[in-house]
Amino acid sequence: MTSKNRFPIRFAVNPRLLIIGLGCAAVLAALLTFIIKRPQSLTNKLDFTYLDSQIDAWDGVSSPDKILKTLQSYEKEQIGSATALSLLKRYRLLALKGLRYDVYTAKARDFSEKYPKQDAILSLFLDSCLLVPHELSQAEIEFLLHLDPRDLSPENASLLLLVLHKAHFIDTPQRFLQIPYGIELLNQLLVNADPPRSSIFTNNVVVALILSGNIQAALAAGKGAVGKTMSFDALYSNLLYDFGSPEEAALLFRQLYEQDGNYKYLLHEADAFIKSGDIQKARGVWKELEPNLSGPALLTVLYNQGSTSADPAERKYYFLRLLNIDKFHEYGVLQYARLLPETEALSFLRSLPIYKTHALLQLEALRYEYSGAHRPFVPGSLWILLNRFSQDERLYHWGAWYLYTIGNIEELEKLLAMAKEKGIQHPSLVLYPALRALEQGKLETGQQLLSSFPGTEWYIPANLGKLYQKTYRILNAIEMYQLAASLAQDTKIESRLYHQIGDCFLSLDKLSEARRSYEYAIQLNPGNMEAVFALQQLNARMINPR
């Protein structure tokens, strides 16, 4: 299915996509063209010629005290906004040559407060926020949050979106909605979408459409801009990967690699093939990458090759290569051990120098012990591990699943209480109490628990969708299932979720939408026989309506 046939997904935002889209240097450079040109001397009583010669001569290493003193003396004059802008441009030049960016940022904020209606001065303040190499101060954030988007030029609206991203206000839609003027800013950016004022706005228009929940429009807005700039293609390829066609995303990632030569695009291409269900193509990309990689990237490729191979000998080959490079690779150790006979695997795990300090290795050894004796894993062994590794959230995750699965609710409640006491945060620690509440008929409690977790694990919104479906809030259910499908990285899971979406549309008597959902579920996973059967029944109903 191509991207144009995807269902709209509200607020299913991938932070990686925003980082790529909002951190594009090319877009920023284009937006700042009108403010970073060499400042011209003013025709007033202040003479900048000597000051400019000092700035040109400064080596960027020695202290620029004399230059700063001159700048400060100019500030004491009865200056207006034009002179303030000229001074600020020179602070920017100094910052680019070696002056602490904090000085430039502080001065830009002072002038912006003094001349609140001057677009060019505000542009430099926003520029300074992007240049400063650390997190923004509380004072800078407060200033940002009190801006009025109605007073912003289109250029500054786009710059503001970049700065808000740096301040982490665009990491999630929920966080973005905390901005007092968030919706107004989106509306202003979207005004430039039809028709676009300039291609430099395309990135932020697409991001604004994503944040407003209109994924269909974001895909449509971006389609015509593909191939114009690499920065936009990087954004759009990730948009396709997350919400559109992973096959198209793979093609675009390959084109980006051919233009740029950066191997990260080939890694993304392989990810896209995996998401589309074409494991062999992904393995081909990894094989192509192997001779050219080193460090963590090579370890990732070796692990992926071993994990996806159907041949035990080949799996062992890749995991051995991985462990020869990094003998302390925890997941590589686990995967290799599982290829050995049980007694040999147990001996191998316990012989490792890292065994005593790694919770998952000890958990694996305990599971071998109980498996070999044909006894179930007992909760007492879990508590021994939790006491040894009280801050390892993975143990709480596994333990909560295990105790819930075997029905030991008393021990599960103790584990959840211990996790809360230790400050552990993990979606499973929300999921299982919610499932317990639903089993007891406490629907409101279950909904509150599931709604409280801000993470991006697919099974949280999937269960919330199931709750909404059971309580006949069908539109809410569809929204949650779509969100879960966008977060899942497994086509079989996505297929199940779209089957659920089809059932929801069917209950609303929206037969065409239901049919599209079932068809897409089957396209994602032809082995989803429940979706096949549902589609057959629906087709029969549409041919012979009662």
Describe it.
There is one protein chain. Helices cover 69% and strands 0% of the residues. It contains 32 helices and no strands. Helix 22 runs antiparallel to helix 23. The longest helix is centred in the N-terminal third of the chain and has 17 residues, at 81-97. It starts with 14 loop residues before the first helix and ends with a helix.
List the helices and strands and how they pair.
Elements: H1 15-22, H2 25-31, H3 49-57, H4 65-75, H5 81-97, H6 101-114, H7 119-131, H8 138-145, H9 154-166, H10 173-176, H11 182-191, H12 202-211, H13 215-223, H14 230-243, H15 246-260, H16 264-276, H17 279-289, H18 295-308, H19 312-325, H20 330-337, H21 342-351, H22 359-372, H23 379-388, H24 393-406, H25 409-422, H26 428-439, H27 443-452, H28 459-470, H29 474-487, H30 491-507, H31 511-524, H32 529-543
Helix pairs in contact: 1-14, 5-6, 5-7, 6-7, 7-9, 11-12, 12-13, 13-14, 14-15, 15-16, 16-17, 17-18, 18-19, 19-20, 20-21, 21-22, 22-23, 23-24, 24-25, 26-27, 27-28, 28-29, 29-30, 30-31, 31-32
